């Protein structure tokens, strides 16, 4: 029989309603009968003890904020009753923990594309990438023409990636645009890339080409449309046909699972996120790392309140200091714009049962499991360390997912309790936190983790998930690919000229 409520950690003074609870219902926790005082929606919290104003509310074994008024045992507690404990910049002390995980290397493989430089892709696609938003329409037309001509045969997809940037940007914004576009050109999921420039933009095509560096010229080509006499689409098609012909001959081969790199992301979270889907990704992340693979956690603002857990899992003091900078730099960014560091969660999060940023963070960070942190990356930086990495990027779903793909992740694993259809430029797999969402949105959700509170053991769910991820890495499409939902978003912090 499915449980109706759950106390996650012995130290907690709240329980989570797994199913909706009715006023007058009795729940029994730690041998104590508690009368539910109000109708409490699934995913939301019930108080297990009387609490006075100012006292901490504990979930996952950590404070998730403090009561802004007296609350009673059995009361439904939500964002109307809790306030964050988060403030400004903090000083941190490194208290390293020892990680002991006994997960065997099973020697599994997937079917991937081995590139000339030794890297591996899980897709073999043709991408048209504009250097500037002015040529978005040309890039879109080129992709559509090639799809019509070829029917997409021999490659996994033909896609253009329009964006709004590449000109009228200064400083970090200009560099961020260059880095993300460079990372896309070099991404192994692309079997062929045509970079389309205008000619007068800030992101000068010749300078950008030098910035990208060495490429396989049979697969990566550039055109500058202002330098083309006549129809730039016709000229672009001549180049596209050549690189498409090369990519269309690629074939999948057996690749060790140690080569797989996945991004860990959540969006539209709810009260089940930290109970089902996020811990599932954590278990998978630990498994993948034990196979020699790599996972990347981002959404730095959604680490606030749980950051010390990550800091103390850093493999050495240098990584600890980098993680401190990762957190405090993002807090400084918030504060420099006059925004509080705890301005989260979203209305959808609150409706799903998440009341404060600490509560969201303690659920969010479960996606990265229990292994050591072995790398910390700036926004736009490419992966250089295997194992668990932290990446600087905001919580915004499309910006963060684009950043994960750009650093070199083959797939983004995206947990959600509210649902979202989008995808970035790599397969963006949606894992639902509850079964109702999976049932209601089968064209959005790829894997249902809601069964974990329906008496399927986490280990059983994880084994099914491992098998599914391997199938996706080997070519099985996820819903965003089937629907053609593929976009990019680049982080912007400064002025537009």
Uncertain runs are none
Strand content: 15-25%
Determine Rg (CA atoms, Å).
24 Å
Largest sheet: 7 strands, parallel
Strand order, largest beta sheet: 19-20-18-17-21-22-23
Gross morphology is globular
Can you walk through the features of this model?
The model has no long low-confidence stretch (mean pLDDT 96). 29% of the residues lie in helices and 20% in strands. It has 13 helices and 23 strands. The chain has a 7-stranded parallel beta sheet, sandwiched between helices. It has 497 residues and is an alpha/beta fold. The termini are far apart.
List keywords for this structure.
Ribose 5-phosphate Isomerase B, Chain: A; 23 strands; alpha/beta; 29% helix; 497 residues; 7-stranded parallel sheet; 20% strand
Topology:
Blueprint (H helix, E strand, L loop, with lengths): L4 E2 L7 E4 L8 E4 L2 E4 L9 E3 L8 E4 L2 E6 L8 E2 L4 E2 L25 E6 L5 E2 L3 E6 L5 H15 L6 E4 L10 H15 L4 E8 L7 H8 L7 E5 L7 H16 L5 E4 L4 E6 L10 H14 L3 E4 L9 H5 L5 H20 L10 H6 L4 H8 L8 E5 L9 E5 L5 H10 L4 E6 L11 E5 L2 H6 L6 E2 L9 H16 L5 H5 L14
Parallel strand pairs: 12-13, 12-14, 14-15, 17-18, 17-21, 18-20, 19-20, 21-22, 22-23
Antiparallel strand pairs: 1-2, 2-5, 3-4, 5-8, 6-7, 7-9, 10-11, 10-16
């Amino acid at each position: 029989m499915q449980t109706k409520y759950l106390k996650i950690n012995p130290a907690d003074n709240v329980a989570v309603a797994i199913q909706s609870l009715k006023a007058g219902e009795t729940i029994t926790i730690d041998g104590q009968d508690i009368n539910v005082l109000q109708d409490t929606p699934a995913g939301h919290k019930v108080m297990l003890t009387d609490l006075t104003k100012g006292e901490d509310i504990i979930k996952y074994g950590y404070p998730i904020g403090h009561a802004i008024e007296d609350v009673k045992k059995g009361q439904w507690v939500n964002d109307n009753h809790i306030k964050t404990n988060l403030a400004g910049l903090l000083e941190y002390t490194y208290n390293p923990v020892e990680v002991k995980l006994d997960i065997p290397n099973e020697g599994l493989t997937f079917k991937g594309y081995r590139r000339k430089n030794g890297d591996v892709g899980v897709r073999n696609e043709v991408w048209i990438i504009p250097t500037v938003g002015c040529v978005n329409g040309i890039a879109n037309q080129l992709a559509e023409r090639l799809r019509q001509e070829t029917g997409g045969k021999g490659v996994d997809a033909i896609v253009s990636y329009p964006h709004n940037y590449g000109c009228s940007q200064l400083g970090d914004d200009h560099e961020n645009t260059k880095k993300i576009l460079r990372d896309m050109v070099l991404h192994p999921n692309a079997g062929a890339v045509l970079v389309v420039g205008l000619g007068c933009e800030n992101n000068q095509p010749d300078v950008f080409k030098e910035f990208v560096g060495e490429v396989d010229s049979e697969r990566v080509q550039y055109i500058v449309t202002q330098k083309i006499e006549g129809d730039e689409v016709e000229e672009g098609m001549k180049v596209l046909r050549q690189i498409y012909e090369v990519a269309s001959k690629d074939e999948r081969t057996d690749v060790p699972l140690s080569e797989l790199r996945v991004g860990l992301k959540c969006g539209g979270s709810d009260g089940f996120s930290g109970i089902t889907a996020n811990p599932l990704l954590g278990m998978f992340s630990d498994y993948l790392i034990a196979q020699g693979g790599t996972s990347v956690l981002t959404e730095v603002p959604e680490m606030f309140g749980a950051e010390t857990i990550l800091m103390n899992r850093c493999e050495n003091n240098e990584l600890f200091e980098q993680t401190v900078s990762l957190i405090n730099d993002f807090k400084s960014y918030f504060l420099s714009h006059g925004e509080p560091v705890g301005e989260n969660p979203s209305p959808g999060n609150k409706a799903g049962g998440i009341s404060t940023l600490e509560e969201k963070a303690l659920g969010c960070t479960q996606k990265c499991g229990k292994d050591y942190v072995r790398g910390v990356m700036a926004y736009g930086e490419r992966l250089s360390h295997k194992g668990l990495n932290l990446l600087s990027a905001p919580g915004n779903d499309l910006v963060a997912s684009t950043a994960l793909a750009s650093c070199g992740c083959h797939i983004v694993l995206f947990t959600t309790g509210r649902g979202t259809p989008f995808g970035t430029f790599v397969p963006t797999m949606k894992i639902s936190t509850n079964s109702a969402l999976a049932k209601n949105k089968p064209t959005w959700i790829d894997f249902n983790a809601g069964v974990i509170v329906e008496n399927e053991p986490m280990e059983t769910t994880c084994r099914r998930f491992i098998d599914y991820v391997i199938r996706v890495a080997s070519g099985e499409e996820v819903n965003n690919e089937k629907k053609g939902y593929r976009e990019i978003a680049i982080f912007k912090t400064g002025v537009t000229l």
